[in-house]
Structures are given as structure tokens and as C-alpha cells.
Amino acid sequence: MGQRGKAEVATIHAARAKSLRETQRNWGEKPRENPYSDAMVDTKTLIRASFEAGREFLRPPAEREQEAPARPAPALVPIRSLGENHRERITQHLLALDPHDRYLRFGHWAHDEQIQRYAAALDFERDEIFGIYNRKLELIAVAHLAYAKDKGYDSCAEFGVSVLPGARGRGYGARLFDRAAMHATNDGVSLMFIHALSENAAMLKIARNAGATVERDGSEAEAYLRLPPATLDSRMTEIIEEQIAQTDYRLKSQAKSFWSFLADVQEIRRGIIDANQRSSP
């Protein structure tokens, strides 16, 4: 990581410190209602999700692509934690955002070099990155749960999210927020906040729906959500959902390899047929 990239990350954390101090003083002791209680995994949801996944993996890619725009989000969206080996895919995901989407995500008109520095500066040891992959193993949605570098604010975390245009309207941003809130709670975080532009209606809607308090200050807005203490239910749910996401990724990888192999076989078969037809008298 270059010195410039480190400086940018440090600047982001320093800019939030004042808001964090003020917010911690203003918050009462009573926690808000569990923001992700509706996302807890139940048996019926798991069975339905397993059936849907199995049926989808057996459908040819072309057929799935034709129906994709009309299909709603599945009962259970596999969201996996991303590590160092996903850094390049995270970079490509962010670079795929158009200029206005980058403006809403980062609060300024970020060009390619700035995005690459941001991705290169991601600290997978300190922060948590979550992602949603489609069946082509394309990273269609990414959430960044950033922890404060200052140990005095280790009970706070900031949430940011981006979803590619073709995957919007399915509630992925809200699902990622719930997943991040669950992890933050289980990790001992008591205050989760979002810094966004006031015009970023989608992001602020996610925050409000989760029960966060939103404060506007001109062109910018801050949303704060007090998280409840971790429970056995929240810890077990996170473990189960992560295992589901890991399994889903492996199945998608295997399915992609299978359909790629089948396409190669069909291409060879067509080549043989064409050659036989040309050699026929």
C-alpha cells in the first residue's frame, strides 16, 4: 500500500472522530430494537432457499439470463465475508460503477486511480468486507464495515455499500446492512453509523428502515444506529449464514465450470459436424 493510500484512509477515520465523540455523548443507554431480527434464519427459509438454489444451478446460463430482470431476490441471499484474495474483484466491482454512482458511494467524483488506491488500502484484518456474487461469480454488491483505527472508538463502525445497476431493486443493500449489523453486534460494536450525501435517498432509506437516526447537515447526512448486545441466536445465525454463503460460492464455482466444460464440448461437436458436412460429396 502506498503512503498516499494510507494517508487517505487515515483522513477518513480522522474526519469521523468528532462526530463519533458527539454521538456517543448524545446516545442514551437503552438499545434500539434488534435491527436484523427479521433476517434470522429459520428452517422453512433454509429449505426453500436450498430448493431454489438446486433448481437454479441446473438451468442453462442463457435461460437464467433471459429471466433475470423479472426474477425477485431469492428467499435467502448468500452473503459471504471477503478476504485478501477478493481484493481484485472488489476493485473491478467499484470500477464498474458509473461516475454518479461513485459520487454517491464515496461522496466525491472518484476517478479510477482513486478507486484503485481505496481498494489497495482496504484492511481485511481490521475491517469486514461482505459481498454478493451472482452465478457468473461476478461481485454484484459489496459492503464495507470499517472500524475506527483509534482504540478509543473500537465500539463504533461505519457502513458503506455499493450495488451494480443490474442488481438493484432486489433489496441487496438492505440485506448487506443487516449482515453487517449482525457481525458488528457479535463483534462487540455498539454504535453503527453511515456517512452519506443527503441526495443518496437509497442509502438513507436503508438506514431509516433499520431504525437509525438520520441527521442532515446541508449536502451531507449522518445516520446512527445503536446496536443491541450479542445473543446466542445472533452468533449462531451468523455462523450458519456464513456457511451457507461459502457453500453457495463453491456450488456456483462448480456450476460455472460444468457449463463452461459443456459449452466447450458442444463447440467441439459443432466443429466436427461442420467438418463432416464440408467433406461430404
Structure description:
The chain has 281 residues and is of the alpha+beta class. The protein has one domain (3-44, 77-257): 3-Layer(aba) Sandwich (Aminopeptidase), CATH 3.40.630. The chain is built from 9 helices and 7 strands, in the order H-H-H-E-H-H-H-E-E-E-H-E-H-E-E-H. Strand 6 and strand 7 form a beta hairpin. The N and C termini lie far apart (65 Å).
In short:
The protein is an alpha+beta fold and 281 residues long. It is built from nine helices and seven strands; from the N terminus they run αααβαααβββαβαββα. Helix 4 (87-95) runs antiparallel to helix 6 (112-120).
Short key terms for the protein model shown above:
51% helix; globular; 281 residues; Aminopeptidase; alpha+beta
CATH architecture: 3-Layer(aba) Sandwich
- Biggest β-sheet description: 7 strands, mixed
Identify the CATH homologous superfamily. Gcn5-related N-acetyltransferase (GNAT)
- How are strands sequenced across the largest beta sheet? 1-2-3-4-5-7-6
Number of strands: 7
Contiguous low-pLDDT stretches (5 residues minimum) are 4-13, 19-35
Strand/helix succession: HHHEHHHEEEHEHEEH
Q: What overall geometry do the principal axes of the alpha carbons give?
A: globular
Q: Say what the CATH topology is.
A: Aminopeptidase
Which structural class best describes the helix and strand composition? Answer: alpha+beta
Number of domains: 1
Question: What helical percentage do the residues reach?
Answer: 40-55%
Q: Span from first to last CA? A: 65 Å
Strand content: 15-25%
